[in-house]
Design a protein that fits this description.
The complex is a heterodimer of chains A (336) and B (279). Chain A has 336 residues and is mainly α. Chain A folds into 2 domains: 72 residues, no CATH class; 244 residues, MetI-like fold (Orthogonal Bundle). In chain A, 77% of the residues lie in helices and 0% in strands. Chain A has 15 helices and no strands. In chain A, helix 5 crosses helix 9, helix 7 crosses helix 12 and helix 9 packs across helix 11. Chain A is globular. With 279 residues, chain B is mostly helical. Chain B contains 11 helices and no strands. In chain B, helix 3 crosses helix 9. Classes of the chains: A mainly alpha (336), B mainly alpha (279). The interface between A and B is large, with 55 and 47 residues.
Chain lengths: 336, 279
């Protein structure tokens, strides 16, 4: 098993290098002159030249790339133009909020999606199935920014049940450590009042972010269960009178979720990207809102770092997905 | 005809096709159907933020413009963007997929590794970054979206071409001395067309959605364009009182994307019975 994991990790290295090259080339070559873009509209030619030199933009591209690689290897992405602080520090402080949000969305998507998929498959071509099918296509088709605004309007502005934005109510101070994950820190500090407040803030963003994933997981679980129900072992177990509930929720499900697990892996990358929109609407202090700020202010260093980070997470999740596959289905361990 | 009758039995797909036809119809004839076609750019400050009524079925916006008219007029922009994006993405992705699938060796490897890298990049962020770097406008949004969507076509066409490369008819063509471009474009491509069409249909819906996000974040359409995403962004200041301002343009996005997705699913069932969504 350890060898399997190691082999998978080595396979990712060329892709990661490609990611570095592509992001670098796109961001350095698409603006006609990055120095002019950096200097702003009112800069004099002398200022532009100074910027070009201080950023090393007068060097040939391969030299710039090597410098960039050296920086990445030391986790040095330079300073953000917007916040004026090292990009790596900004990201490290904001990453826990995004991970917390993404994780909550994933829990909602999996926790509801798998049972709904099984229910749809069990009532195949009857009304629960029909409703869930249309619902899952609509879940993918809905614009997250619009859904977020609708939910805010209904639950925060009109009904006042849940907070409108942010991660914590104004006036409350988050505990100072030790993990950086707000909910965990509140629990560790024994501050259940803060925990409750933070959890209430998490509900709307997490629900918004989860919807696309929920729809995808429902669809794939349904298809998987429908496939497995055709298998001989199911017919046999039913013929010998094996309890139907245990058969479906344990044995059929276990044989059906391989495709779903792949989707969960793919979803994680999608959720990180979806967080960009959701976070900026709910003022969630994570990587997503940071990315939007960076893009709106053309902060190329932040853009590079964030793209790389998400690519890296995507690769890591892909490895993890393969490992989970191998755990669920022992046949895959041998064949690779 | 048999295929057509089979398609008509798939209710969700027929609903999807009807929605798509409606969007296309509105995109072409919108200016003649909208009750207030001049509201694409005019403003009437005396009747701003009116709730839905018989005169204004979806209410009016912050500049007193009829939202119903603007939702209708927005169909043209949304469809134009998605057609251009999917067209460009196909123009880049399909030839690359054909070449990568037909060749064996470093060229094929190189194309597919670059495709993998692009698929691993977060699409929305890449599109936003590219649009910003090229200067925010509808044109750069379209170019940015095309640059992020082509790998999906490359991957599908690559798989199909690699499968067809060993087919008997390709051997025969090589035997009678047909050139590679001829084999690729006149014989392999037509055989790989159905998955491309399915992908393109779903891509049209997806592009409408992502283009709306770009418009919402100020990276696409510019005022006073009757853009759906832009309208939702403009409405945020007037909530929750002017609920209609945000609701109807968003519903238009939902409906259009839903239509293309349902149609795409239906076409996939038709083309590839193995992937059947509903048995």
């Amino acid at each position: 098993m350890a060898g399997f994991v190691l082999r998978r990790m080595l396979l990712v290295l060329p892709s990661l290098f490609g990611l570095l090259v592509v992001t670098f080339l796109l961001i350095r070559t698409i603006p006609a002159d990055p120095a002019v873009a950096l200097a702003g509209d009112n800069a004099t030619p002398a200022q532009i030249a100074a910027i070009r030199e201080s950023y090393g933009l007068d060097q040939p591209l391969p030299v710039q790339f090597l410098r960039y690689l050296r920086g990445v290897a030391r986790l040095d992405f330079g300073e953000s133009q917007y916040s004026g602080r090292p990009v790596a520090l900004d990201i490290a402080q904001r990453l826990p909020a995004t991970l917390e949000l993404t994780f909550a969305a994933l829990v909602i998507a999996i926790g509801l999606g798998i049972p709904l998929g099984v229910v749809a498959a069990m009532h195949h071509n009857r009304w629960p199935d029909f409703l869930l099918r249309i619902g899952s296509v609509a879940g993918i088709a809905v614009a997250a920014f619009w859904l977020a605004i609708m939910l805010q309007m209904l639950f925060a502005m009109k009904l006042g049940w849940l907070p409108l934005r942010g991660q914590l109510s104004a006036g409350l101070t988050p505990p100072a450590g030790p993990t950086g994950f707000l909910l965990t820190d509140c629990l560790l500090a024994g501050r259940f009042d803060l925990f409750l407040d933070a959890a209430r803030h998490l509900v709307l963003p997490a629900v918004t972010l989860s919807l696309g994933g929920l729809a995808t997981i429902t669809r794939f679980t349904r298809a998987g269960v429908l496939d497995t129900l055709q298998k001989d072992f199911v017919t046999y177990e039913r013929a010998v009178g094996f309890p139907r509930g245990r058969l479906i929720w344990v044995y059929v499900l276990r044989n059906s979720v391989v495709a779903t697990v792949t989707q969960i892996g793919l979803l994680f990358g999608g959720l990180m990207a979806g967080a960009v929109v959701v976070e900026s609407i709910y003022d969630w202090p994570g990587i997503g809102s940071y990315t939007v700020q960076a893009i709106l202010t053309a902060d190329s260093k932040v853009m590079l770092a964030v793209t790389l980070l998400i690519g890296l997470i995507y690769a890591a999740v892909n490895i993890l997905t393969d490992v989970v596959h191998a755990l669920i289905d022992p046949r895959l361990r041998e064949s690779r | 005809m048999l295929v057509f009758r089979k398609f008509l039995r798939d209710i969700p797909a027929v609903i999807g096709a009807a929605i798509v036809l409606l969007v296309v119809f509105l995109a072409i004839f919108g200016p003649w159907i909208a009750p207030y076609p001049q509201d694409a750019s005019a403003s009437h400050l005396l009747r701003r933020l009116r709730p839905p009524s018989l005169d204004f079925p979806f209410g009016t916006d912050n500049l007193g413009r009829d939202i119903f008219s603007r939702v209708i007029l927005g169909a043209r922009g949304a469809l134009k963007v998605s057609l251009v994006v999917v067209g460009l993405a196909m123009a880049i992705g399909v030839p690359l997929g054909l070449i990568a699938g037909y060749n064996r060796g470093w060229l094929s490897e190189a194309i597919m590794r670059v495709t993998d890298v692009f698929l691993a990049l977060p699409q929305l962020i890449l599109a936003l970054a590219l649009a910003q770097l090229m200067g925010p406008s509808v044109e750069s949004a379209m170019l940015a979206l095309s640059l992020t969507y082509w790998p999906f076509f490359t991957r599908i066409v690559h798989a199909e071409t690699a499968r067809l490369r060993n087919a008997l008819f390709v051997d025969a063509l090589q035997g009678i001395g047909a050139g590679t471009p001829r084999i690729l474009f006149l014989h392999i491509l037509p055989n790989a067309l159905s998955p491309i069409i399915v992908r393109a249909t779903i891509g049209l819906g997806f592009t409408i959605l992502v283009a709306a996000v770009l418009g919402f974040l100020g990276m696409g359409a510019t005022p006073p364009d009757p853009d759906w995403g832009l309208a939702v962004a403009q409405s945020r200041t007037y909530l929750p009182n002017a609920w209609w301002f945000a609701t109807f343009p968003g519903l238009a996005i939902l409906l259009a994307v839903l239509g293309f997705n349902l149609l795409g699913d239906g076409l996939r069932d038709l083309v590839d019975p193995r992937l059947r969504r509903s048995r």
